[in-house]
Amino acid sequence: MAALAASRRLLHLRPELELCLRSRVLTLYSCRANGPGRSGHAPPRRRLVSFRQGPCGEGNTFAGKNNAMPSPDEQLNLGKDDSALEPTEKKNFSDEFLQLSLEEEEGHDMVCETTVQDVRKSAVELLAARAFTVSELRKKLCGKKYPADTVDSVIADFKSRGLLNDGYYAESFSRSRWQSSTWGPRRIKQALRQKGVPDAEADQATRKVFQDDQDDENQTARGISEASMDHLFVQASKQWQRGKSLPLENRRARIVRWLQYRGFSWGVTNTIVRKLEAQHPP
Question: Where does the RecX first three-helical domain lie (predicted)?
Fold first, then answer.
């Protein structure tokens, strides 16, 4: 079985040897079919060529004999396992199979190294365009049909070098959405969760953006600092003035929807509405 497996592996790596092995099998079959006690014309003997001595079709000798045809007993012995071979022949088989195995392993290593370089190049190109979370970058690279283990290896390398950091991404994203779109903590956390940022890092990022270092009871209750409340009131005042032609109830409902949609708690919403009604009476 070991010799059969080795022959199949050799044929897979070197297809040009198929003709030699086929000739060997045909010779064995003809010797057994025309043994003692059988009648009929014996088919012409096929000349065997050793595929270990050189390529097929070049007139090489068999097992070191000078163009001599093997006897029937020698031909029958070809069908046996490696224990029937001479020590030198077994050594030649072992050396050749070992060399082919080493070449196959070297080729596999070269392919793996090339794949790692391709994944690293694609990751750098993606990060050069915009920032990504770890989860987003993994999805992008896996979408390019790269092996998952190679993608994870490259991502781990980037994280160790500081090129990927979900904490920094969450803080930058929170600050940008707060200043440009007036998003509140709830909506920012929801968006970060969809991007694959862990909840702990999302909570820490929103605290850095909406809260300060002061230990204020109102800040603790509302979840945002006084400075953040002032900024929010300025933005809400713009929305309040746009609906000044509407009845008071409609204006109030409109500003409540605006604040709730952006992810502010009911405590923050109620405080802003009361302040707007006090400073901008109908």
Answer: 121-156
